[in-house]
Amino acid sequence: MRRKTRQISVGWVKVGGDAPIVVQSMTSTKTHQVEETLSQINRLAKAGCEIIRVAVPHREDLEALPDIVKNSPIPVIADIHFAPSYAFGSMEAGVHGIRINPGNIGKEEIVRDIVQEAKRKGVAIRIGVNSGSLEKDLLEKYGYPKAEALFESAMRWSEKFEKWGFYNFKVSIKGSDVLENIRANELFAQHTDIPLHIGITEAGMGLKGIVKSAVGIGILLYKGIGDTIRVSLTDDPEVEVETAYAILQSLGLRRRGIEIIACPTCGRIEVDLPKVVKEVEEKLKGLEKPLKVAIMGCVVNAIGEAREADLGLACGRGFAWLFKEGKPIKRVSEEEMVQALLEEVLNYDGKGKV
Ligand code: SF4
């Protein structure tokens, strides 16, 4: 069961409480290149990203923020490190949230001033606790950024924020070690009702990064922990968003687009299945219908194996059976099978099993 958290607002997007688990990402463009940044934000929003974070490392990035905020279709969070003046400047520019690692902002009074300004302006804050920027005293106490150290840092700052009368914040505790990360988030979840932003930092590239993120984020979500997620990959942020939805979908927490399942293939296969699946995925991209579509590699066992699907293709050599709700409805040639499936998807008027 999902952990009960208090709800906060990042612009018009609600995080925590009974809001759906929110998908976030971060732009990879130079923020000051406004056109590129906005075009990436638009692509990400189309892919399902609901809140976007942009880096603000230089003055020129700060100066670009008003334009970006004004034209972004989703709330914008400014990512601030080391430079308190950029935190104030970003809020002045109208961002909906800021992310700070209080440990690298400087004196406590400065953090308090930022918090008070956020309160005045209705801006949300994410307290970021990262293994790479943990406070010195905690590193000395624990020797390395273990779960207890990350948890203590997160609690320390959360308590201060609340003492200063500020509640519109969430916390992220991110370590690149998956198990320490899970433990630190579990500890925090046991002690507070503050919403958690979860993710595995520096997960890496390709398959390894995706697996690491899916395992770390997936385990936490399964335990009911996590109100918003970001998959961090050394890749195009659109892949991050796609991966985030795949994780949420596999746990039954969110759904986006049509769910396509494909058989694992075996010696009975009669077709270039990856090619067919790719083509169907491309053609169905962006279509919002609660449907499960199966693409299977042979006609022998396929329909039985794909009982859970609403529609599907069972491919033979040079042809395919198009099936609906477990029954074959039409035999089509290899050339026409993707189109035939597409038409059936568009005309499907059943309820769908998703
Ligand atoms: S559908 Fe056919 S090809 Fe695919 S795994 Fe099952 S038996 Fe093998």
Automatic annotation (TrEMBL):
One of its GO terms (biological process) is isopentenyl diphosphate biosynthetic process, methylerythritol 4-phosphate pathway. Belongs to the IspG family. InterPro entries: Dihydropteroate_synth-like_sf, Enolase-like_C_sf, IspG_bac, IspG_bac-typ, IspG_C, IspG_TIM, NO2/SO3_Rdtase_4Fe4S_sf. Residues 5-244 form the IspG TIM-barrel domain. Gene3D superfamilies: Dihydropteroate synthase-like, Sulfite Reductase Hemoprotein, domain 1. The lineage of its organism: Bacteria, Pseudomonadati, Aquificota, Aquificia, Aquificales. Its cofactor is [4Fe-4S] cluster. GO terms for molecular function: 4 iron, 4 sulfur cluster binding; 4-hydroxy-3-methylbut-2-en-1-yl diphosphate synthase activity (ferredoxin); 4-hydroxy-3-methylbut-2-enyl-diphosphate synthase activity (flavodoxin); iron ion binding. Converts 2C-methyl-D-erythritol 2,4-cyclodiphosphate (ME-2,4cPP) into 1-hydroxy-2-methyl-2-(E)-butenyl 4-diphosphate. It comes from Thermocrinis ruber. This is 4-hydroxy-3-methylbut-2-en-1-yl diphosphate synthase (flavodoxin). Keywords: 4Fe-4S, Iron, Iron-sulfur, Isoprene biosynthesis, Metal-binding, Oxidoreductase.
